[in-house]
Write a structure and sequence with these properties.
The complex is a heterodimer of chains A (about 190) and B (about 450). Chain A is of the alpha/beta class and about 190 residues long. In chain A, about 30% of the residues lie in helices and about 15% in strands. Chain A is built from five helices and eight strands. In chain B, helix 3 links the parallel strand 3 and strand 4. The longest helix of chain B is centred in the first third of the chain and has 28 residues. The chains are: A alpha/beta (about 190), B alpha/beta (about 450). Bound molecules: zinc ion (2 copies). The site of one zinc ion has 8 residues of chain A, from helix 5.
Amino acid sequence: MSFIALVPGQMVAPGLLVTIGECVSRTIGLSVRVLEPILEPPEAYDPQRRQYSSTAILRLLIELRPQEAARLVAITEQDIFIPMLSFIFGQAQLDGRVALVSLARLRQEFYGLPPDEEVFRERACKETLHELGHTFGLTHCDDLGCTMSLATSIQQVDTKSATFCPACTILLAERLGRFGRSTARPSEEESP
Amino acid sequence: MKRQWKILVVDDEEVMRESLAAWLREDGYTVDTAASGAEAIRRVTADDYAICFVDLKMPPGIDGIETMIEIQKIRLDMPVVIITAYATVDTAITAMKEGAQEYIVKPCNPQEISLLVERIIRMKNLERENLLLRERLEKQYTFYDIISKNPKMAEIFELIRDVASLRSTVLIQGESGTGKEMIARAIHRSGDRVEQPFVAISCAALAESLLESELFGHERGAFTGAIERKKGKFELADGGTLFLDEIGDISPKLQADLLRVLQERSFFLVGGTEEVQVNVRVIAATHANLQEKVRAGEFREDLFYRLNVIDVRIPPLRERREDVPLLVRHFIERIALELGREITDISEGAIRLLIDYDWPGNVRELENALERAMVSCRERVLGAENFSFLVARAAEDERGWTPPGTQTLAELERKAIEATLRRTDGGVAEAARILGIDRSTLYDKIKKYGIKRG
Ligand SMILES: [Zn+2]
Ligand SMILES: [Zn+2]
């Protein structure tokens, strides 16, 4: 029985992981296991940008993923980047195994607003589903309400929902091999 | 529409290259990467890309700008986005002048790059649609930025290819706005001097003494204000190409000096005694009929023959009206990107109007007209109403001819000059050409009638 592994970085609240885990297993239909927290690798830290290199963290995650985990998503409090961009909300190996979601820019406080735990959790769920979607080979969706639509600003994160649109749901199901034969890389681990 | 487009990311730095590629792949594009300019050129030769992201800073050999120039030699309309760091923004601006679609300062906001990609892809989709349409219609010739399906232009393109690597002087004749400098650049870029400087100067813009020192440079103390030795355009263009625009306007003294450089391949700085050797290919251009000037004794015959080794005559736009629709679409795409406007098409009526108009200012006037129309356009499609100023221009021309009435010849002349200057936005050289008189004569008349310019 394959599962999705959630790995918290330093200081990620356990309650949040429960919320994300429930959301993921409800939406994707695979069981979720929360693994031991990890330390964001110090070599991934860019002191000039005061951010973590998303690529460097992903590299570590590839090594960390247990054989039995179909996918591994790390949730970090750190602000992450790729060299070209000032920040990213998350990054995934497209059609791969691992993904990373940053919580740094998902809180209202980041934008100078009063805290709102519910809004924050909702955003974290959306971004986790989105990055997981990428690991299942889904690319960005033109449906702005779909969790797979591209968000480059917090407004866009808030515009979309924590669900896949009908088209993405079908694609995801195909990738998961739930409807008969999987069209994408069939693999034992991915069959529920 | 996304999935049919490929994007190329060129950067020697692996993390940079691969992470941008991954980010674009998540957006649904097929992305190839190249770790060097040479690899990029190989890829572009083998495959078609919608966008090339090229990092400005790559190791010596072939840097970002060179890569871009080479890429655009292979696919001349390839949108190249130059990636730069803050420190090199100046160079990026130079890159824009060399033909980069856009430049991005890294790290940039994700929204910025996503909008940029979207905009270019939208243009590419449009382009592809138009291309499919066009292909069915007729063969089209493009050479660098010059677009035409006129057979005379095709001959010119062929000539350019043949003579690009020679040292022979080229004389380009054509009305204002026909793109003489673009032809000169195309010659430079397709030849073996491409790595060397291309230096352009308009001989009409400057007074004789200034032009002399601009061309040949001056020694320290050559005249009041000459604080240090200054290199002239000939020296700056050494090894490359010097483009002398409006050559028909230079004084007899400069004609003699120029003839000497062309013959001796050397010259003296203003106020200097030391002879400077140069290896420069001269491309001269003029809107005037130089042969007529020679006959009238205004231009040295020997200089004319020195310049006219290779003779390129660009037909005015009204003699190649079949190019108007092509140019219009090309400019709409470009200007829409520049203005960040979603204008994607032009109405049948508007196209007809543009084809019928005489374009005294040629391609440049067409480009300006489109820009003016697009700025005022509130729709996605340009309509005839956006070009009402052209109708007014044409009507004004006609009114100028019809009612002599009770006006004296002097009054008519004054009005004609005023109207023409309005049309050229105060440009005396162009007004003189339209009126068919010398610039100096026009200056005299402007003074005589007390006409205010611009
Ligand atoms: Zn995404
Ligand atoms: Zn969707």
